[in-house]
Amino acid sequence: xxxxxxxxxxxxxxxxxxxxxxxxxxxxxxxxxxxxxxxxxxxxxxxxxxxxxxxxxxxxxxxxxxxxxxxxxxxxxxxxxxxxxxxxxxxxxxxxxxxxxxxxxxxxxxxxxxxxxxxxxxxxxxxxxxxxxxxxxxxxxxxxxxxxxxxxxxxxxxxxxxxxxxxxxxxxxxxxxxxxxxxxxxxxxxxxxxxxxxxxxxxxxxxxxxxxxxxxxxxxxxxxxxxxxxxxxxxxxxxxxxxxxxxxxxxxxxxxxxxxxxxxxxxxxxxxxxxxxxxxxxxxxxxxxxxxxxxxxxxxxxxxxxxxxxxxxxxxxxxxxxxxxxxxxxxxxxxxxxxxxxxxxxxxxxxxxxxx
Length: 356
Known about the structure:
Strand content: 5-15%
Structural class: alpha+beta
Oligomer: single chain
Number of helices: 12
Number of strands: 10
Helix content: 40-55%
Shape: globular
CATH superfamily of the largest domain: Aminoglycoside phosphotransferase (APH), C-terminal lobe
Radius of gyration: 20 Å
């Protein structure tokens, strides 16, 4: 959610004891259900901070990725790898860059929890949106390609690809604001006046004109894989927050990067974008409008305020777990501490609206 750092999340490691799986059972299952599978099989675990453990499956002919629910008691709607599998599979052939999927296993007796298997897409994952190791032209390519991939997603006919029941098709913003307000209050650890202001103001000021598309829910640079040569997006990852929702809520979440500082939120605010070859927020929004057939986007600051509120509520949830002792590591505390400054930034967006 724009808060992880690359150092501890890149690459693979030996499978951790708490995430051990039955290799023999997995190999037998793959032999029967994965087209072209050849033994032997080597399994490694991705380091990443995903809530769903992910594994690299290495065979003589190719590499795959396995995503599974974590072990233990889970919230009913959490860790929905079956939803991830459904959306990725449904998007194949639409022009949206997604890995090929092979199978969804709902039989928990195989490796302990349900899982799915997809292709391993070999490319680069970048974490810093300033892309310090790339050239100006390469940066321009990355941003244009990210923009194009999300525009394509939002233009997919969700009914035509079998995702008509993937979420509720109306009132997305109202439902999200209510949901995250409830989550925030349940994990509140201090009074944040700006958050209280947002919870009161946002539901009363939702823009008219509902729209529905497939939304990713967490679209950002480090949830994409870039081609090592062309620097174009070749796969979008981490679909666990995807649903049917408002495309502008999804796009504006992605665009928060321009309004957040590098030191606090891995953003672009304050950087010399022209020197870097990175489009301004205004140019990036206009490019999306061109690709999705819009003249412009009204109420842009509202969508920004909404997303900062949403992300602040998510970070407060992490802080709540830190305080009650279920997430006591330093990184969780660092993330949780960002809830307050982000809420303040969210209210700043509202003040921009009120000043107009």
